[in-house]
């Protein structure tokens, strides 16, 4: 049973549905297992909990 873990920003329920559907179908096609065998875990990560280089992502966004 493949487990796909996605770390992403906050998303709406509809965005999560679309993402899960897309990943499950694509992985199923590539791996050759049924869609029902796919497990997809979405971790919503706040930008203050992500560092890119030596800067928090929330600070980097504010600089743009």
Account of the protein in words:
There is one protein chain. By secondary structure, the chain is α+β, with helices and mostly antiparallel strands. The chain has one domain: Macrophage Migration Inhibitory Factor (2-Layer Sandwich), CATH 3.30.429. The chain is 41% helix and 25% strand. The protein has 2 helices and 4 strands. It has a two-stranded parallel sheet. A two-stranded antiparallel ribbon has the order 3-4.
In short:
By secondary structure, the chain is an alpha+beta fold.
Layout of secondary structure:
Elements: E1 3-8, H1 13-31, E2 39-44, E3 51-52, E4 55-56, H2 57-63
Parallel strand pairs: 1-2
Antiparallel strand pairs: 3-4
Return Rg in Å. 15 Å
Give the helix level as a range of percent: 40-55%
CATH architecture: 2-Layer Sandwich
- Enumerate the spans where pLDDT stays under 50 for 5 or more consecutive residues: none
User: What is the CATH topology?
Assistant: Macrophage Migration Inhibitory Factor
Number of strands: 4
Task: Tell me the CATH superfamily.
Answer: Macrophage Migration Inhibitory Factor
Average predicted local confidence, pLDDT: 94
Give the total of domains. 1
Strand percentage: 25-35%
**Helix/strand-derived class?**
alpha+beta
- Cross-sheet strand order for the largest sheet: 1-2
Number of continuous helical runs: 2
What is the top-level CATH class? Alpha Beta
Q: Largest sheet, described in full? A: 2 strands, parallel
What pattern of helices and strands is seen along the backbone?
A: EHEEEH
Form type: elongated
How far apart are the termini? 41 Å
């Amino acid at each position: 049973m493949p487990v796909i873990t996605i770390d992403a920003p906050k998303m709406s329920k509809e965005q999560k549905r679309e993402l899960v559907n897309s990943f499950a179908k694509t992985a199923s096609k590539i791996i050759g297992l049924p869609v029902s065998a796919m497990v997809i875990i979405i971790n919503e990560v706040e930008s203050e909990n992500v560092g890119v280089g030596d800067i928090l992502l929330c600070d980097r966004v504010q600089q743009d």
